Amino acid sequence: MRFGLFGGPSRGESDDASTYRTYVRMVQEAEQLGFYGVYLVEHHFTGNGQLSSSLSLLSHLAALTSTMRLGTAVVVLPWHNPMLVAEQAATVDVLSGGRLDLGVGRGYRDYEFRGFGVELEEAQARFDESVAVIRKAWTAEGRFSHEGRYWRFDDVVAEPVPVQRPHPPLWTGAGSPASIEAAARNGYNLFLDQVGLFDLCLERVAAFKAACAAAGRAYTPSMVALTRSLRIAATAADRDGLVERQMAALTALAESTRPPEQGGRNLFYSPPEARRETVEGASIIGTPDECIARLKRLEAGGVEQVLFTSATIEDARLFAREVMPAFG
Questions:
Q1: Among 38, 52, 153, 267, whose CB has the most other CB atoms within 10 angstroms?
Q2: Are the C-beta atoms of 231 and 245 separated by less than 8 Å?
Q3: What is the pTM of this model?
């Protein structure tokens, strides 16, 4: 089993420049502690300083790390020119020596689509066309053209060529049976969300494995990464405070991902009355021994990669010292 970081810098009390410097130092230390990768989100217009330019930050991290996988989770394709995404992502792959995992998605926050002047109803169609362009850009022999519903490219060639061939791995998030089957059929690796209860997560892993078999894809556990909140307590006495912190974090997510005119509440992050159950049933939380037990349960169900949200550098140090050794 191996462990990575998920999310990115998000402004607290400090300014953006200090926040980014602190986050970069954390990633560098996490690599030395044995974390295998960092996977960055993309969000806009939050007012909270959430990361908006994941590929730019990954280019910087490529120069400051040597072994970590560098991933996006995810680039929201309906907002971007797909040829530029293909070239920018390939640049990260070249600079990192072939360490890029490109996670892509269609987006879901209403206010981000409004801010960019893109119709949310077009998200899936835009996503599908953009993926087709990116794949063509990375695999075409020489120049090519594309004329679609949203994009037209005439006699173009993508530069540079990615190090990983035929192209860097493509990842996407999915949760419903239909979306998991589509991810397997269309050649994606799979991100699983941070709030699904453990049993549900293991059902999804099994469903993806079966869908890969049905699609004729050779499945390996490295094709799935499970996102989890990490709240590790040095002592049992600290546990209750961590539960309250994680409940507050889910509340903040629920309120920040849905605009006030829609009630300011995104039930994806669990309704308020179920939030404690979600924290207890979905998080890696508690003492090191409790965290080990929770991760062993996931490992027994076929999960081999876990990406941690909410982790501070102090969490990462304690986890590396007290938990990682239990997983060889």
A1: 38
A2: yes
A3: 0.95
